[in-house]
Design goal:
Layout: H1 2-13, E1 18-24, H2 31-39, E2 46-52, H3 59-69, E3 73-77, H4 83-93, E4 98-101
Parallel strand pairs: 1-2, 1-4, 2-3
Amino acid sequence: MHDCIELFLFCTMNPDLISIIMPAKNEEAFIADCIDSILQQDYIHWELLVVDDHSSDNTWNILSTYQRRDPRIKALQNKGTGIISALQSGYAMSSGMYITRMDADDL
């Protein structure tokens, strides 16, 4: 647990933090592999903001599991509807100096 706290504090105070914004809707078939590919990166100073756009499958449960495992992963629920609203929601919650996006089915 101590390592998670240190990692969280380092990421939130690091000026080189990259915010990755990922909109997702009904992506249970791909989202775990996608998040795992981000977790395997050598660069560790990132936060992942995954915005679930009212999925009717198991996407939200998968995101919640990842969020509990790694403090850099933030599962959000889209208050609006559609990809533009999801991206705006993720952007509003981002902390990074740099911002990028990734689709939930990208590996």
